[in-house]
Fold this protein.
Amino acid sequence: INAEYMGMQAVSAEVASLLENEVYEYVPVSDVPAGCKPLPTRWVFTVKSGDDANSVRYKARLVVRGDRQVDVPLTDIYAPVVDYNTLRAMLAVATVNDYELDNLDISTAFLNGELQENVFITIPDGVPGKPNHVLRLRRSLYGLRQAPRIWNDTLHQYLVDHGLQQSAVDPCLYFTPGKLWIAVWVDDFLCMGVDPAVSQQFRSALAQRFKLRELGAVRSFLGMGIERDRTNRILTVSASDYIDQVLARYHMSDCKGAAAPL
């Protein structure tokens, strides 16, 4: 399949998501406050691994030039992520007790956060134009400096409202005591459940609020390859995929390996 065609399909899918989430609205240029300059945008294209090891998916993101923003406090631009020690502890507990481990992903996560301030952008390529108009963002968009924090606040409120507790040790670990644990890395979730029915109930509720991709039993998470032998309660973590990516990046995929490189 032609890569250019797949890129166009990815743009169409992203624009559809923007419309579905009511991310923007058209406003006349005259409505833009004096001294407020609409931010430019750009399309960013990536090729990501598919749901199985032998497939890829093309992804397009409409990104705001957040580097042009000058009025956002630096304390409002980050989203916390789960600690690796928390992840290792979850993997160990799940292995010893044979708990369920599922991988979840929220598609177009940042589009779910509502903006409290006025942000204007120019009409990007791929979005129908309108003479003498710009777009006013109603929801956060990738590239905005405050977008990660707004998404994290939105997700936190949803999880707490649905009965999960936030860990006092790791703010990105949410749990229902003795039943369910959720580790959050921006829009990637590692879900550990004692009972498959409880995990399924959580996933179903989450899918009603957000655009959820259920990736099934965890096989990889944050670049870590994960293999489970549930019969013998053994879990193996590897970084072979990440190593292959680094070698490819530096054109060393065909290099000669050594047991103890110097």
About this structure: The CA atoms of residues 99 and 177 lie 14 Å apart.
